[in-house]
Structures are given as C-alpha cells and as structure tokens.
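Lecture notes, unit on protein representations.

Consider one protein chain, 501 amino acids long.
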Amino acid sequence: MPRKKKDRALPTVTLTDREVLEAMAVRFGRKKGLNEAQKRSRRSNILNLRKMLFKEQLEFIEDDSRRKAAICSRRSGKSYAAGRYLVQEAMENDGSTCVYIARTREAAKRILWTSLKELNQKFRLGIKFNNADLIATLKNNSQILFTGANDASDVDKLRGAAFSLAVLDEAAFFNIDLKELVNEVLTPALLDMDGSLVMISTPNSACSGFFYDITEKGAYNFSIHRWTVKDNPYMRHAMRAIQQDIENGILDPNDASFKREYLGLWVRDDQEVVYSYAEHNLFEKTPDSNDWEYVLGVDLGYHDATAFVVAAWSPDHPHLYLVDEYKERRMLTSDVEDKIKRFMTDYDFTSIVMDTGGGASRMVLETFKERSRLPVKPARKTGDKVGLIKMMNSDLKGSIVKVKRGMELLEEWDRLQFNRAGTAEDRRYDNHLSDAALYAWVECRHYLYEAKVPGVVAGSEEYYKQLEDKIEQRLLDEQYQESYDKDLWGEGYNESDLWFN
C-alpha cells in the first residue's frame, strides 16, 4: 500500500481588520476611488509626463478652453505635446476614451503610435497595446484610439462614440470636409463628458479651409496657440541645420514654403494651387442671349461624392459660364439618374458628359443609355490631365471662364493643390466638382465665338471717309464703262466668272 503523506502544518497568516475590509471592498466592488498610494503614483506619472514639455506646450495643455487650436511649424513638438495630452487625459479620467485622428490610419500609426510605446516603456505606465486595432488601454481602463479620416467610411466609424478628448493632427491637410467631421461627428461625441476638441497643424499652401478660418480669421471661437521650432529647446541642432541650409542657398527665407514650414505662417503659394481664379472670373447673372447651350459634367463616386456642374455658352458671347452645381455622397445609380432628370427640367442640355474612368462608372453610363435614354456620353479625356487643367487655367486667366459667385466649386478650388512633383492633384483634397467642371469645359464650344465688326456711326469722320471712297469707286467704274471699247476688247469678264471652276 502506498504510504500516506504526512500532514504538513500550514503557516499561520494574521490579517488585520483593515486588510480584511479592503479585500472585501475590492472583491465586492464597494471600494470607491483610489487609495493614497495609487493617487501618489498617478500624480507622479503625470508629473513625469510633463517634465519634458516646454512653456508653449504646457500652456496649450493647461488651457481650460474646450476648443483649442495650435498653428505650428515643422519640428515644433506639436504631435509630441498631443501625445502627452492624450495620456494625461486618459490617466485622470478612469474608463474614459480619447481619440487621436490623423489624415490616414497609417499616418496616425507613424506619427504617434510608436512614440506612445516608447513613452510607456520609459515611465512604466503599464499600457497594453492592440496593434491590430490601434487601441492603447491604460491600467484604469481608459483607452486611446488611433485612427484616420481619409474618407466618409473612416468618419462613420467615429459616429456614436463618447470621447473626453479628440485630437486632430495636421488638420489643415485633411481630405474630407473637416467642418462636417467636427460638427456632425466629434461635437456630439464630446457632449457626454464635456470633452475637449484639439486641432493642430502646419499651414497649407492654399490658405483656406476650416482650420484656416479658425486660426487666421478667428472663426468659431477657438483658443489659438502658436509656436515654432525656434521655441523648442530640444531642437537646437535643427535650428543650426536650418541656418546652414540658408547660408548654402538650399533654403530661401523669403520663399512661401519656408514661411509655412519653418515659421508657421499662412502664406499662399499660387504655384501649387491647381485652379487659379480671380475676382474677374466671378459673375452674378448671365448676360442676355436667345441661344444658350447647356452642358452637364458629372463625376461619379460613392464614398467620395458624386458631383454635377452645369456649364452654359452662347455664340453671342465669348465666355463660358459655370452656372449650377450639386454634390452628394452615397448616391445610387437611381439617385444619379433622378438628379440628372431634375436638372433637365431647368436646362435643355446639348450634352451630358460623365466620367467613365472605372468599370462601375462605365456600367452606370450604359445603364442610363439602356434604361432611361438619357443623352449621356463619356467625358473626353487625354493622358495628360495636368495639360487640360493648364488650358482651362489659361481660360480663367483670360477671363473666358466665369463662375457664379458663391458656388461650392470655388471653395474646392481654394483648397485643391498639386502634389509636390506637380504631376497630379494632391489626393488629400477633394476634386469632384473640379473634375465635373473640367469635363463640361472640354465639351463646350465657347471658343467658336467670333467678334462682330462694329458698324460705323453715322455722321462720324470714319462714316464720311467710307462714303467718299464709295462715291470715288462708283465714278471710276462709270468712267471705265464709258471708255471701254467692246469691239476692240470683247465683252470681258464678270466678277462671278472669277469663281467659276
């Protein structure tokens, strides 16, 4: 038989009444708040997070305003401050959710995700990282979400959430309607916790948009902060490098891009703007004509907006007029068809041109032809879109193209820029109305206009000169006829004989 093991005496553990009560409170969830040791640890972590921040960053974080914006230069430490701000907010509010929004998800990961991991390791914050969903979870169950807002589908993922802090980084360069994101998505999401909305960015070259209105025009009552790389004490080496590049002629302090990138100033660079218009291109009302011809340009989309632009031209006038527009996301084939038909009640279209760049677009066009008999045809394109844009810009510069004042198309033109190489439009900006207008412009025949020679005013010096020339010519003709010998020279030729063939 197996031998029985001898019973071993268990060690005696003595618990105080306080320890028993604390254990029961934790077990049954009756303990509220943190103990003193936990509070000291939290305060210590927050103080450590703020140690490396300089004056401008601290003033930005400590600002009690619920709506804040920072316009900064490159290497100014704006994203670094945003990271510290997010962690501090999450630590101070148990179970809260903060969100960091960059232009794309990849940009959010590149700019701040790795930096947050380094921060966690340095200060031993105990943050758990979900690399698949880009969610950082703190010990107090607060979370920091990292996401992008590249299109409407990204924005929809943010609806219905509740945030204590929302940070939009590089807010001047978002591809979507930033005002719509703020008003329709983030503002409702911040109501539950009376949360803060923070926007940070360097300036864009178009000097336009929601962030421009906030930081330059003082719109929407945001608290504005400004600082540059010069204010960052940890970037002295960068300042020396910048100065060296200036001395070597690599950087020009007078250049618009230098002022934006290194001084954080709103300076417009027309060379980067795709469509250049001025006050002389705007009109209130089209001139009179009994012979208007209308063309509808359509740029199809779904997550991106479907855009419509109506152009008008007349043989009586040398100008092309962009007179109407419409833009909407998530339009189905039937919605597009209905909108075209509604346009047709107001305009007798000579032509309807539609973008057929993709297979789905071509399918929509063929559906229209078969089902509705709409007079739709593919937009004429070339392999050189930039070349077409330059030609349209030439018409804009020559005041040939006119745009109705107040059209949303103008706002799109204000923002739309070329990429750095100048080979295509920058994909960060909407170009849907712009493309629809381009298709319509290509289709119109405004260039067939021929200026009529003005008549001579009766009684003027030119009038009497022409009258004298006619009298002189008639006398010469009569004199010629009287002296002409038919027997010698024959019947001669009529003027009509000169064109006989």
